Sequence to fold (724 residues):
Amino acid sequence: MCAIREDGAAQPYGSRPPPPAESVRRAELDRLLELTVRDTGVHAGAVFLLASDQQALRLEVTAGIPAEYLAPWFGVALSSPVPVAEAVRERRLVWLGDPQELARRYPRTAIALPYHHAVAAAPILTGTTAWGTLLLIWPGSDTTGPAGPSPERVRAAGRRLGRLLRDAAGIGHAVSPGPAPRSLPQPPARKRGPAEALAAADFVERLPEGSCALDLEGRFTYVSATAAALLGGSVPDLIGTCPWQSLPWCTDPAFEDHFRAAMVSRKPGYYTAMPAPDRWLAYELYPDGSGMSVRISPTGPGGASQAAPARTGAPQGEPIRLGEVYRVLHLAAALSEAVGVGDVVDLITEEMLPAFGARTVALLAAEDGRMRVIGYRGYHARLLEQFDGAPLTFPAPAVRVLATGVPAFFATFEELSRAYPPAPRQKGLHAWAFLPLIASGRPVGSCVFAFDRPHPFPDQQRVVFTALAGLIAQALERARLYDTSKELAQTLQAALLPDSLPDLPGLDAAARYLPSVRGMDIGGDFYDLVRVDDTTAAAVIGDVQGHNATAAALMGRIHPAIRSQALTGTTPALALAHANRLLVDMNPGRFVSCLYAHLDLARHRAVLATAGHPPPILRHPDGHAEVLNLPPGLLLGIDPDADYPSTGIPLTPGTVLALYTDGLVETPGVDLDDAMTGLAAQLAQAAWPQPMDRLATALIDHARQTATRTDDIALLLIGLATAG
Fold:
């Protein structure tokens, strides 16, 4: 048998046992990935393999960058909105040659890897069978050098990988995702002779600045004596370690973030840091496919070198600090939890200004072909009036970015004025970021950040701004849908409940409905007070199982049936029996509790019957209150032949009858009987006399303050006027 050499040729194993077949295939997979990276001219690549359940991708191996850089995608559900998953789902090449295009289309991906780079994700296919995804990374389109790899070469690489995986599976040695992603070792450096190596070291040591080299993982492979002294370490202690691990002062993850930014983008980087009080160092980063060279020199807070004359044209591309990125990730998580438009506006106007050091922010929504200002912080209201109601053709950058879908960044007022000559100078504002909010391919609105000093907007920050705009757009779209659904639900709920209660002589009645604290603010609780004649009325309260649209729909069917019985003046027992048979015939899979009271105001008497509903509370004229003990009846919808026994009680002038649903009294961890006794105590202690409307408000306000309340509440209070 033969083994596969690095060059792809075969060699005899000799006396060694052959490696496991899967190891051979995995080695061939690695070789093809390295070949793809070289052949396409990119600087990094990765292979994702389909998991055994065919519902997720697993990162198998990377070349050119450490696997940990792709940590957010070690495991990716096929339904995820990320390029590697979309390539497999849609069986097509996903090409993102511009970092801002990546941020616009895949904000979650760009936020997690906020560096200047372009990517291509190609499905690994044989015919229509998908095996995984090939991911390639190269510098963004505005860098020097070629614009990117050939799309056809990328597709061909995917087909080569597909044939390998298909053939391995065909002989029973399928390559499945390993237990952890692997990083291929970096290519070996050109071998140098001892004399050449010593000469190079002597050259570096004679320079006034410090020099060091790091591998792809960020470990020191060479440190000059000057560099070690500047860093505050020794050469032996630093070699083989990462700066953020071996240097005590390097607790801020800025160096690691700059290192990653340079390695992913392959662009030189520059930044300054203060390793000790009153001592600043400047770092210049020069990456390639084998690692990174770093030049270190003393500097001042402004970045002017103290070891050599100040240089112009220092490498740029400084990324956002990791701390700021983490804050953006926190904001992204908060946006995912925002419920209504008000929540989104509050998050943007109150929490995002500190994240970017901006002075003002304005949020505009696109509604019916016009812009509407829905939130702002730091602006004068008069300045925003010109945008409120402006058509989407209005010649202003906040509107224009919606038409193009491309953010606009202006580092100074002069830049803004050149692009939009009518732009007014705004006192104290000197730089702007105009972000289009696009969700599901349609404009949702725009977000404008302004700064109190010129702001250069480096590439990495533009990517983060663009990605964040995508997250804001998605959150705003969800919030608007929620608000619309909530408004519809509340309109439906109001339509199902009485507009007002009838006016009967000697009777003071008030009702309240409080929806659940979660969901769509709609439920199945209902109440009614039906006038039969001048001296007779029927009071009804009920609760359909659940608090959602289904419960409300069922309530909309059962409530009119009970009301129609009440209008005929039927007895409580017959009314409940009729509703019960109707519900059993419907067979909705839900039950209904109900309490029905027939009120005879001429005889000062009431007859009550219950179908599994909490008992009413009677407050007597002398002030004491009691929970009425009524004979129980089955919930409506269980037994078509159920009986509902009735109970008569006196209703003397000054009496209050309280009907309610269990949401008013149920509290987790509290016995229901104790809770009802507590409600009776509230009624007994209430000031008297007082209107039922005021008393109902007090009871509902008390319930509203209960943080653990999760059910709808309906309350119907009926008071008999005192004589005279």
